[in-house]
């Protein structure tokens, strides 16, 4: 069993910054892909960023240059972070940490669909 717990998020005005973090624990594949996806009310899930065990990173075009994904690990505990700068109202969504028991797919947009595990989500609200 794998457990993912997100923290951070909150409310900020446009142009501001927020950081969300995730702790993954349990029986984790040795070289997992971890990342973030988001879902806004009435919209489909959208992959935001992903990082694989070698450090290769993918970003959605909509967040490229504004968001930074990073990770660190301690034995079977994996920490994942997403630094979000220059936030825009369209970034408002619930952000979920996801984990895939394989290498990252080329289809980042569907990260939320192919994640094997995900957390409960954390709300990010950006006001104009």
Q: What features would you highlight for this structure?
A:
128 residues, four-stranded antiparallel β-sheet, seven-stranded mixed β-sheet, single chain, mainly beta
Q: Which class best fits the helix and strand makeup?
A: mainly beta
Choose one word for the global shape. Answer: globular
Relative helix content: under 10%
* Radius of gyration (Å): 13 Å
Mean pLDDT: 93
Number of helices: 1
Order of helices and strands: EEEEEEEEEHEE
How many extended strands?
11
Q: What share of residues are in beta strands?
A: over 45%
How is the main sheet built? 7 strands, mixed
Through-space gap between termini:
40 Å
- Which residues form runs of ≥5 with pLDDT under 50? none
Give an overview of the whole structure.
This protein is mainly β and 128 residues long. 3% of the residues lie in helices and 53% in strands. The protein is built from one helix and eleven strands. It has one helix spanning 111-114; strands at residues 2-8, 10-13, 18-26, 33-39, 46-51, 57-59, 67-74, 77-84, 93-100, 117-118, 122-127. Strands 2, 4, 5, 6, 9, 10 and 11 form a seven-stranded mixed β-sheet that branches. Strands 1-3-8-7 form a four-stranded antiparallel β-sheet, with no helix packed on it. Strand 5 (46-51) and strand 6 form a beta hairpin. The longest helix has 4 residues, at 111-114. It starts with a strand and ends with a strand. The model has no long low-confidence stretch (mean pLDDT 93).
């Amino acid at each position: 069993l794998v457990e993912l717990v997100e923290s951070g998020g909150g409310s900020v005005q446009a142009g501001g910054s927020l950081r969300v973090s995730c702790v993954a624990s349990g029986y984790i594949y040795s070289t997992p892909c971890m990342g973030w996806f988001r879902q806004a009310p009435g919209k489909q899930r959208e992959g935001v960023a992903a990082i694989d065990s070698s450090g290769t990173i993918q970003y959605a075009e909509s967040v490229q240059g504004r968001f930074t994904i990073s990770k660190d690990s301690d034995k079977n505990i994996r920490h994942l972070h997403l630094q979000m700068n220059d936030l825009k109202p369209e970034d408002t969504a619930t952000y979920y940490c996801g984990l895939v028991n394989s290498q990252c797919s080329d289809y980042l947009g569907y990260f939320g669909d192919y994640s094997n595990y995900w957390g409960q989500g954390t709300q990010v609200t950006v006001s104009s």
